[in-house]
Please model this.
Amino acid sequence: MTGGPQSMLEAAARAAGALAIRLDIGRDAARLEGDPARFALPSADLSPFSDHIAPSDRARLAALADGEADLRIRLAGTDGEVRYARLMGRCEGGVLTGLLLPAGTGPGAALATLDMEAALVSGLEAGEIVAHYQPIVSLESERLVGFEALARWERPDIGLLGPQEFFTAADRLGLSGRIGDRVRASAALGLSRLHRREDHTRALYVSANASVGELLSEGFVERLTGAVDKAGLSRSRYRLEITETEIMREPERAAGVLDALKSEGIGLLLDDFGTGYSSLARLDRFPFDIIKIDQYFVRAMLADTSARSITASVVKMARNLGMVIVAEGVETEEMADLAGEMGCDYAQGFLYAGALDPLSAYRAGCEGINGRFGPPAFS
Model:
């Protein structure tokens, strides 16, 4: 890097504690002027440059158009840490000339984060994100009535990961919607296969979750109904779950989408009731078929009479609105008995089973689980 303008750029870089950079986007190669150790980079010549930045930043970098550029990226250092940086300058003919400036470090920044992001991107494409199924059981008959589909990542060489272990990365990468679509479609396909092979399972339903962001995304109704139809599952056997807190973030817009889903024959389930700030009196404008009482109230009922009163009120109001009531987080026989006394119809929780892999769920759908719940009743 020589010449008057470039010398000025290098001087500006030194004054700002930055590096001057010339990045050929098409060739994926960068030349740095200054001390690359400032960013724990291995050398002044980086090719391919994309190997040194986070996977979620690579597409944005490749998409840079000619003109002024100001891009925040994460750099993977040789010391195992991740550093935030700003890539600023002007792009002409696919070559960016400008500055690489420090922009702090992120919380918990480490190369393991980038490794997970890269693995999650490839894992989604490879079909490693799957649905597991938690049974839902009738409190009266102690028979299986349905499943809730839950996201799991079958990560090679590591094992099974729950959503709490990868959804933060998924949000950061903008993959949450695709993962949600994958799990919702898998849920429909899994139950459809069970229905086709075992006649006595046809009364079972399956539910899967959506955030309000997913619910309000363009084409959501068409994607969901299309996935259910493609699986060969009756829409009447599918339930979409959305939490109370989520629904109240965008109540007016969400109501329109829920009405559209209901008109298309998809059942609707209000999840985690009691965790937010709304009331059933306000929720009667939404066309829910099932309400789940949050596990906090179910657990608190054993020792707290006020929790029992609240639960009894919720059950009564839900019944008046024509809803079926599910008790979440049922872990003991005592909790199941009390939920039944309160008027709940169904229950789910570790008393019956956690989330089952597809083969175990298939067996539970056919035979029940000995000592926990029976198979579904013939419809």
About this structure: Residues 1-5 have pLDDT under 50 and may be disordered.
